[in-house]
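Try this one yourself first.
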């Protein structure tokens, strides 16, 4: 039987038919070679966004995108190595503390990170506020760094899942970014190419997440886990709250400093809790710990100073100067700051976290397009969490910026518009809502 043409594949997907793995692989290979044009891939992406994909189709698409470039398979080099991915939020600096904290317990961690876009921050942007830090590492350099320090965080190279990069550029301008199968293939293709032994996913839900409802977040988590079925990588997902910023610091330098505070045994309680919980899952997955001993090891690494020492060692190994931990001004100082005060007494009942993140972007802490410049020192310092009791005049947040074109009072009004106030306290939301594993999926 002759192989179907790209035109026939597009027509069948448009009608909602399920495509076999071989046809998806054929279509992606044609796109890689140039035999499938951008306009044909755009039609395919739109058909997928409208018609969806079965789990088998999504897995096939993920595999095909993975195979479009290099496959590093780091688990072949290490007895056990863990990876972590967050679906993105506001104030999420967990990766910066997690990697050295786990490495201080003798378990190796490697991650490929990305830049922030829209209201979500990027780990790479945070790391590049550190003087001299080099996140552009080859496979050989990542392996060397992990061998030396136990951890490494770098940016994905052009050789990892190159089809995803081209597909995302088309998705970005055609309204197909939010398709669940396409999100799954984009995330998991890079993770499978990296090839860790274990991956912990932090899937956010709430007003600052791409998947605002717990049901949507759980659906994404299950899709990501299913995409790795049959591979040598074990995947688990935590559903975590993003109905308010994680921690108090929003903005790149702010968040790096707060992550280091966590490793000093300080920092916001929610950041410590989430980082520790993800660290426990990694240590347990390594086979060297159970739940009790994992918690003990993490607590001892923090109390003894090993976690902070490991962070300094890792930062130096990637060319950075850890002196900023004692001298945070080395990461940059904004030209302007402004306190934003509460207009009334009561409780801070809710925060539109996505809009808050976009205010941070307007201050210079993020970007709307990939080429936009970022101001390391810009951002927001939140001083009152959702559910916190306040009085009229209480300082809710501090704006930090350097752009001369910005009017602070206007930005303060925008920030207040993201908040709602009430006469009674709001019911608390759990930070960690559930754990989805291959067994429970």
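Now uncover the answer:
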């Amino acid at each position: 039987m002759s192989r179907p043409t790209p035109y026939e594949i597009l027509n069948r997907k448009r009608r909602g038919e399920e495509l076999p793995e071989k046809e998806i692989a054929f279509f992606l290979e044609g796109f890689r070679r140039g035999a499938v044009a951008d306009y044909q891939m755009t039609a395919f992406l739109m058909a997928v966004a409208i018609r969806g994909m079965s789990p088998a189709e999504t897995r096939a698409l993920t595999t095909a995108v993975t195979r479009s470039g290099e496959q590093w398979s780091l688990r072949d080099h290490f007895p056990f190595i863990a990876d972590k991915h967050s679906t993105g939020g506001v104030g999420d600096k967990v990766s910066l503390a997690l990697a050295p904290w786990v490495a201080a317990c003798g378990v190796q961690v490697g991650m490929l990170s990305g830049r922030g876009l829209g209201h979500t921050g990027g780990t790479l942007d945070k790391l590049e506020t550190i003087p001299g830090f080099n996140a552009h590492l080859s496979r050989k350099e990542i392996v060397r760094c992990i061998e030396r320090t136990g951890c490494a965080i770098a940016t994905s190279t052009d050789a990892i899942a190159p089809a995803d990069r081209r597909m995302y550029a088309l998705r970005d301008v055609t309204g197909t970014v939010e398709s669940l199968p396409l999100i799954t293939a984009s995330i998991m293709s890079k993770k499978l190419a990296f090839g860790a032994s274990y991956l912990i996913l932090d899937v956010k839900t709430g007003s600052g997440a791409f998947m605002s409802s717990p049901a949507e977040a759980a659906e994404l988590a299950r899709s990501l886990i299913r995409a790795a079925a049959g591979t040598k990588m074990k995947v688990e997902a935590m559903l975590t709250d993003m109905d308010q910023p994680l921690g108090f610091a929003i903005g790149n330098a702010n968040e790096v400093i707060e992550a280091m505070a966590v490793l000093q045994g300080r920092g916001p309680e929610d950041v410590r809790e989430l980082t520790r919980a993800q660290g426990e899952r990694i240590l347990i997955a390594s086979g060297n710990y159970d739940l009790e001993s994992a918690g003990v090891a993490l607590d001892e690494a923090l109390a003894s100073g090993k976690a902070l020492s490991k962070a300094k060692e890792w930062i130096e190994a990637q060319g950075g100067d850890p002196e900023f931990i004692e001298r945070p001004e080395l990461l940059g100082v904004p030209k302007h700051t402004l306190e934003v005060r509460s207009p009334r007494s009561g409780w801070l009942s809710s925060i539109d976290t996505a809009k808050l993140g976009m205010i941070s972007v307007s201050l210079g802490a993020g970007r709307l397009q990939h080429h936009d410049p970022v101001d390391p020192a810009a951002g927001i310092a939140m001083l009152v969490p959702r559910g916190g009791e306040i009085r009229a005049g209480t300082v809710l947040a501090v704006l930090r910026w350097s752009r001369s074109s910005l009017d602070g009072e206007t930005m303060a009004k925008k920030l207040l518009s993201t908040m709602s106030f009430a006469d009674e306290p709001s019911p608390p939301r759990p930070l960690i809502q559930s754990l989805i594993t291959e067994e429970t999926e």
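Discussion: DSSP finds 16 helices and 13 strands in the chain. The longest helix spans residues 269-285.
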